[in-house]
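pls read this stuff:
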Amino acid sequence: MELAYIPSPSTGVIHLGPIPLRGYAFCIIIGVFVAVWLGNRRWVARGGKPGTVADIAVWAVPFGLVGGRLYHVITDYQLYFGEGRSWVDAFKIWEGGLGIWGAIALGAVGAWIGCRLRGIPLPAWADALAPGIALAQAFGRWGNWFNQELYGRATDLPWAVKISEGPNRVAGTYHPTFLYESLWCIGVAALVIWADRRFKLGHGRAFALYVAAYCVGRSWIEYMRVDEAHHILGLRLNVWTSIVVFVLAVVYLVLSAKLRPGREEIVEPDRGPAAGDAKTPTDAADADAKDADAEAKDKAGDKPGDKAPSLVKAEDAPKDTEPKDAGRAEAESAPGTASETASEAKKV
């Protein structure tokens, strides 16, 4: 007897006139906005400028969507290129099918491009965005609920999700693996925020912690799922992916802590004139004064055998001779010494 269960939506799309509003897309969009909002708060708290996270997200999000779809199509190619299948369905992203591994990998490429354009380090930006990405996944997983997909084994637990009859699915109550992963991602976000405050994680370690923690949960949740997937040595492909990525994330955590301890002091350097892009008025005036001083010295004594009288020492001049008086008269009639010329240049 089914005493309690989570009902599934009768449809995953609502039509507003000719415009279809799809629940799966809404979940992804909400997740992106939450990630950018939280990432911006964390970035500003680290000393960054407001709006930088959103500017880089403009690069990261499209790359991430393409990467997520590519990973899904490649690992589940039989759904689109098998017998009786249409390859055109590979472009129907609204029907579900985004692989987080591909989304993170290619999204990182887009983020790297955005960071290079802004002149900021990618690891610092990734640290700020890490818990937001986990929350974005938490919201995005509810898109599977709208599409009635990616559920687990049959169960009669009170929180089982009720699936209706449809293509490639049998009516019944199943483990709501989308709900398990959504709750796990919320826990991962909380863990990263706590650890970052407690240990002052930097140089990409907050992001690595998010990756490692997510992989732990994804391993056992993936093991519960019953949808079609490739198996290697008795384990689903995504389970093996979780294990490999977990090991890489832990190795990065350990090596990064040894090689680059602490946290970045400056995450977004000022790119204005003070950073060296242009000279300040004071610097320009000093440079002009130095040039004038050098020019005056050149005029005064750089020519061989024609030293300025004002720069000739008294003992060097011939004693009791007429040229001495002539030189003294010439010095008195000169418009100014080299030092006076430089002083006038500085005043200008």
User: Anything to note?
Assistant: The first strand starts at residue 13 and ends at 16. The longest helix spans residues 52-75. Strands lie at 13-16, 19-22, 161-163, 172-174, 231-232, 235-236.
